[in-house]
Amino acid sequence: MDAKILIESFAExxxxxxxxxxxxxxxxxxxxxxxxxxxxxxxxxxxxxINADKGDLEIFRIREIVDDxxxxxxxxxxxxxxxxxxxxxxxxxxxxxxxxxxxxEFGRRAVQMARQTLIQRIKDLEKDILYNKYEEQVGEIVSxxxxxxxxxxxxxxxxxxxxxxxxxxxxxxxxRFRKGDAVKAIVHRVDMMNGNxxxxxxxxxxxxxxxxxxxxxxxxxxxxxxxVKIVREPGERAKVAVESYDDRIDPVGACVGMKGxxxxxxxxxxxxxxxxVINFTDNLDLYVTRALSPAKxxxxxxxxxxxxxxxxxxxxxxxxxxxxxxYNIKLASKLVGYEIDVFRELNEYExxxxxxxxxxxxxxxxxxxxxKKTGLDTAKSVLTLSKxxxxxxxxxxxxxxxEIFRILRQEFEQ
Length: 414
Fold this sequence. Notes:
Layout lengths: L2 H14 L4 H20 L5 E6 L4 E11 L11 E3 H7 L8 E6 L6 H28 L5 E9 L3 E5 L5 E5 L14 E12 L2 E7 L3 H11 L1 H4 L3 E9 L3 E8 L6 H6 L4 H9 L4 E6 L4 H8 L5 E7 L4 E6 L1 H8 L4 H10 L2 E6 L20 H9 L5 H5 L3 H7 L4 H16 L1
Parallel strand pairs: 2-3, 11-12, 14-15
Antiparallel strand pairs: 1-2, 2-4, 5-6, 5-8, 6-7, 8-9, 10-11, 13-14
Helix pairs in contact: 1-4, 2-4, 5-8, 9-11
Keywords: Cytoplasm, RNA-binding, Transcription, Transcription antitermination, Transcription regulation, Transcription termination
GO molecular function, one term: DNA-binding transcription factor activity
Subcellular location: Cytoplasm
């Protein structure tokens, strides 16, 4: 293989991999200089000129002419007068000899190795380019096509034919992919494994949700609305705290859009994940109240040292605060940065309770027995019911029920 064929085949391969010309020339020179060092032990006195477009290669060995008896005659950049005159008869001591070295002088084996080295260098460069490309895109959304579905990961292909990996743990639990599907995800990280870049994608990261908001809400993309914090339970629920420094902009309304038009696109991409958008505030009590929405909070007590918050709610609001699967309170805790404890607020009759037998001095025994037949054996259990409930559940007269209520309420007032 002559120099022209070697360089032209390499240049064609390099161009197919989108390698720029200066880099291509540098790689060629590095490889040829490595050949020179292997044959001559040193390449400092060699001039290598490459024209990749024409496939031209010129290698010149440059040596200074010294006297045959000189002590420097064995230096790599020196040549004896006798040897020099074999090249050109009229050479004199002190002149420089430019001796052209043909590629064939390195031997067929060396040329074949150079060819393999060139190809390997391009492949290594290609890996570096791929690594750097996606390293710069960490945290950004990419779109790729599913080409293989494995048990623990889904393999995707970008538009340049590069392999991307979406591990099972980075998939939304409701995700179901088929070969050929277009998938959106963020570049989660880029690892180098045994010299090969491994590009890991994620659809569960809060950053993915943030980027989706940037795509759907111009005010977020332009910086007019800031996303302060996002917490997610992928595929189930997410809470997004937003704020705006422009009083004319309602950050929550802008993120949701007219009739939910903006947020619906995000929800669909996240497999119908329930997204709560709340207005951020430095007022902790108000922030917690908003974070626990849709539950209505009665009162809050915060302990700054232990980073715990006690929240009191009416009985019918407790389940709303906790949410399906406990997601609402779990995400609210993550959002505000405090551990939230939910307590059921006691009504005026729940602070204490008294057995009905304690009222035998004021209420006839047969009335107490009548109440017990319906499962009412404490004062609290009676007072939580309405007069209509007692009329329906017992055979007592309306006046008798009014008297029972008066006696029991008087007890708690005392």
